[in-house]
Amino acid sequence: MGEILMKHGERREIAKMLNISEVTVRNALKGRTQSELSERIRKIALQRGGIEVNGTNL
C-alpha cells in the first residue's frame, strides 16, 4: 500500500468532514493504519483528487 498525496489543506478538510483528528487522517494516508476508518479516509482522499504513490518510487 502506497502513500496518498493530497493538495495543501485537504487533510484538514477530510478531518473536519469525518470529525476526526488530522493525525488520524495523516496516519491513514501514509498507510500506517489498517482499520475500516482508514480505508474510508483513503477512499475519500482518492475521490478528492489524492494520488497514491508507491513508497519505492518516491
Could you give the order of strands across the largest sheet? Answer: 1-2
Q: Helix content range of the residues, please?
A: 40-55%
Task: Please work out how many helical segments DSSP would assign.
Answer: 3
**Mean pLDDT level:** 93
Number of domains: 1
The main pleated sheet reads as: 2 strands, antiparallel
Q: Estimate what percentage of residues fall within beta strands.
A: 5-15%
Order of helices and strands: EHHHE
CATH class: Mainly Alpha
What is the CA-CA span between the terminal residues?
A: 13 Å
CATH architecture: Orthogonal Bundle
| DSSP E strands, number | 2
Question: What sort of overall outline do the alpha carbons produce when their principal axes are compared?
Answer: globular
Gyration radius (Cα, Å) is: 10 Å
* Low-confidence segments: none
CATH topology: 434 Repressor (Amino-terminal Domain)
Query: Which structural class matches the secondary elements?
Result: mainly alpha
